[in-house]
Design goal:
There is one protein chain. The chain has helices at about 15, 55-60, 70-75, 120-125, 130-145, 155-160, 160-170, 200-205, and strands spanning about 5, 20-25, 40-45, 65-70, 90, 110-115, 145-150, 175. By secondary structure, it is an alpha/beta fold. It has one domain (about 5-100, about 105-205): 3-Layer(aba) Sandwich (Rossmann fold), CATH 3.40.50.1950. The strands form two sheets. It has a six-stranded parallel β-sheet, with helices on both faces. Strands 1-2 form a two-stranded antiparallel ribbon. Helix 4 packs across helix 7.
Length: about 220
């Protein structure tokens, strides 16, 4: 399991939404702030991935405790050098080794997959379970846990029949896929970098049920 500490510079909320995420390898993981319900953020290997700290900050401010699961390709998008002060979350990308011992990760009360790639969406709908990240989301769907998927795909890929069918399949299982008019629109091929700052992290969080008050 990968262990990192996440750092976000202090900034106004409007700046935070487009802010970056810095991950620093560490042997100790601090508890994520907040005593609310647990939100699992699944990060895929796409352009907005290094900015997922914006979602973490917004979720914690809304009362969620947060843990992060990265797909194998997402790990390369996360910066492993940064400042020495901040707050920590646990980032995991692999199954726990049977001989490793220790407690298993608790089931999340909600899951956000963002950014969600073409591959991840197609695999998830088809029932492919070949990574820890896919396993986490697949099990959450099967348990009836609220799951929100925020894609980052270009228009050419989004037009493919397998992808259209995958989105419809996930929605039929109760997954909120934020794609289409009034939500997140696919970008033209080759233009992804121009849409990173506008990636709607806030919309993904808003699509979840409100975090219940915790006594």
């Amino acid at each position: 399991m990968l262990r990192f500490t996440v750092y976000l510079a202090e900034m106004a909320e409007s700046t935070l939404i487009g802010g970056g995420l810095t991950l620093v390898a560490t042997g100790i993981v601090q508890d994520a702030p907040g005593a609310g319900k647990l939100l699992c953020v699944v990060v895929c290997g796409a352009g907005p991935a290094p900015r997922v700290g914006a979602l973490i900050g917004l979720a914690q401010a809304a009362g969620w405790s947060v843990r992060v699961v990265a797909t194998p390709s997402a790990v390369g998008f996360l910066d492993t050098a940064g400042p020495s002060a901040g707050y920590g979350v646990d980032v995991r990308s692999e199954f726990r080794a049977a001989a490793g011992g220790g407690p298993r990760s608790p089931h999340a009360d909600a899951v956000i997959v963002a950014p969600a790639t073409y591959n991840t969406i197609n695999k998830l709908a088809a029932g492919v379970n070949d990574t820890y990240a896919l396993n986490v989301v697949a099990e959450a769907i099967g348990r009836g846990t609220p799951v929100v998927v925020l894609p980052f795909v270009n228009a050419a890929l989004a037009a493919r029949r397998p992808f259209v069918a995958a989105v419809e399949s996930l929605r039929s299982e109760g997954v909120r896929v934020l794609l289409g008019p009034g939500q997140w629109q696919p970008h033209e091929p080759g233009s992804g970098d121009r849409h990173l700052a506008a990636f709607p992290w806030r919309a993904a969080l808003a699509a979840l049920p409100a975090v219940p008050d915790v006594a």
